[in-house]
Design a protein that fits this description.
nine-stranded mixed beta sheet; 14 helices; binds xanthosine-5'-monophosphate; single chain; nucleotide-binding; alpha/beta; five-stranded parallel beta sheet; GMP synthase activity
């Protein structure tokens, strides 16, 4: 394992991502981690970038015991400045900020870190810089603006680089990270999904033991399905999946989930239709966060009731709750940021643990989304499901803007179905990260036949993104949009007008509520 100590850079998670791309396992911990309390012994350490200045009061610093680990260390940007600060304090504010591409010149070709990286474009993003070489270090690479773009310790395998190898704009960045991890740290390249299945199944069997039982909610999305499939492989029918139809699902979704999970994958599945309960509770509510809370609480209520009716075999007990947490959520919770603001409350099942006194089991908590997809494919989950766009927990409840009624849900559902059907027909589904139709609570005048109409507006949204933190709208050709608009207005009662959302995130979010 390579340890990445995070100093709060927006790119930190990408370091892990890149290392895993050549099958090296890496984990991130906050920069404040005490080295004597590390949960594992790393073969190398990377100090990430960060938004602070090493010389300022209150700036975060690494535990100096990191040098006692006696493993190679690579400091990136702030991480390099931290190494320099510890070894002579020669760090200060540069005359100007350097942001964007720069060309690297390697001045010490014998340095193993820079093999195959000479004269390539690298990505800079800094204001502070090294003003002198730290004690015991030599310069190995320069760039136009940074005389110390790359430094190395004279004797020990300690390196610093001013640029960000983890972003794709650093053309040979991955080569550099591979040089560090594989050549210098000798990290093994055995992180594959095939190995993961094997070790994870063993881990779950040991954790759960010979008789305890596990329950989990499934939604029809890739994460919960892959999680359920792993549990099924590990403990068979001692895993109970529960699917709650909240009346806010997409068209045909419930039937499809039943078919895939129960009939296809042989997962022990209970389907509950709680539509009327959800819709009753949502009556009269228009505030998005209130809707989320109501949907989340109703879900917990229904789920607990169903769970209490599941009677495990004699002597055994439901002890665990499966949750499809992914690594980005874990990173989010451990990264070094200081207080961050809640934009939307996404997690609607948090309350379950407290109420039911269950322990959490999270088989996917080490994985990125694309790793989950690989895993799903390996485990025989149908392609369609593996590549499914994400669908929010509150479902159409936050895509019907304003009050959620059965009639409004029906309009949103039909429009969404047509949009997605056309996207699939055009072969665009996999190019788009997420697409849907939102129903706006405004009426607009139209004309159909010779009649004046006065009906609602559908907003189509389709985005491209890698991490859903930032997103750009998808550029369809006009013919495609024309066809979708015409089908929706003609086929869905209650819609007089269709618009296409051309806002990026930020400043907009993906969902309309
Ligand atoms: P936003 O709208 O925050 O969406 O830009 C980013 C991603 O999160 C999904 N999303 C949710 N998922 N519960 C969920 O499980 C929610 O309340 C929720 N709100 C947004 C959204 O669909 C997108 O993929």
């Amino acid at each position: 394992t390579i340890l990445v100590l995070d100093f709060g850079s927006q790119y930190s998670h990408l370091i892990i991502r890149r290392l895993r791309e050549f099958n090296v396992y890496a984990e991130m911990l906050p920069c404040t981690q005490k080295i004597s309390e590390l949960p594992f012994k790393p073969v190398g350490v990377i100090l990430s970038g960060g938004p602070f200045s090493v010389y300022e009061d209150g700036a975060p610093h690494v535990d100096h015991d990191v040098f006692k680990l006696d493993v190679p260390i690579l400091g990136i940007c702030y991480g390099m400045q931290e190494l320099a600060w510890i070894n002579g304090k020669g760090v200060g504010r540069g005359e100007k900020r350097e942001y964007g591409p720069a060309t690297l010149t390697v001045v010490d070709p014998a340095c193993p870190l820079f093999e195959g990286v000479d004269h390539s474009q690298v990505w800079m993003s800094h204001h502070d810089k090294l003003q002198s070489l730290p004690t015991g270090f030599k310069t190995v690479a320069t760039s136009g603006n940074s005389p110390f773009a790359g430094i190395a310790h004279e004797e020990k395998p300690i390196y610093g680089i001013q640029f960000h190898p983890e972003v794709t704009h650093s053309v040979q960045g991955k080569t550099l990270l591979k040089n560090f991890a594989v050549k210098i740290c000798k990290a093994s390249q055995n992180w594959t999904m095939a190995n993961f299945i094997e070790t994870e199944i063993k881990r779950i069997r040991t954790l759960v033991g010979p008789s305890a039982e596990v329950i989990g909610a499934v939604s029809g999305g890739v994460d919960s399905t892959v999680g359920a499939k792993i549990m099924k492989e590990a403990i068979g029918d001692r895993f109970h999946a529960i699917y709650v139809d909240n009346g806010l699902m997409r068209k045909n979704e419930t039937v499809q989930v039943k078919k895939t999970l129960d009939e296809g994958l042989g997962i022990n599945l209970t389907v509950v239709d709680a539509s009327s309960q959800f819709l009753d509770n949502l009556k009269g509510v228009t505030d998005p966060e209130k809707k989320r809370k109501i949907i989340g609480n109703t879900f917990i209520h229904v789920f607990e009731k169903v769970a209490s009716e599941i009677k495990p075999k004699d002597g055994s007990q439901i002890e665990y709750l499966l949750q499809g947490t992914l690594y980005p959520d874990v990173i989010e919770s451990i990264s070094f940021k200081g207080p961050s603001q809640t934009i939307k409350t996404h997690h609607n099942v948090g309350g379950l643990l407290e109420d039911m006194k269950l322990k959490l089991i999270e088989p996917l908590r080490e994985l990125f989304k694309d790793e989950v997809r690989d895993l799903g494919t390996l485990m025989g989950i149908p392609e369609d499901l593996v590549w499914r766009h994400p669908f929010p927990g509150p479902g159409l409840g936050i895509r019907v803007l304003g009050e959620v009624t059965p009639e409004q849900v029906k309009i949103a559902r039909e429009a969404d179905y047509i949009f997605i059907e056309e996207i699939r027909k055009a072969g665009l589904y996999r190019n788009i990260s997420q697409a849907f139709a939102a129903l706006l609570p405004v009426k607009s005048v139209g004309v159909m036949g010779d009649q004046r109409t006065y009906e609602q507006v559908i907003a189509l949204r389709a985005i491209e993104t890698t991490d859903f933190m930032t997103a750009d709208w998808y550029v369809f050709d006009a013919k495609f949009l024309k066809k979708v608009a015409s089908r929706i207005v003609n086929e869905v009662d209650g819609v007089a007008r269709v618009t296409y959302d051309i806002t990026s995130k930020p400043p907009a979010t993906v969902e309309w509520e």
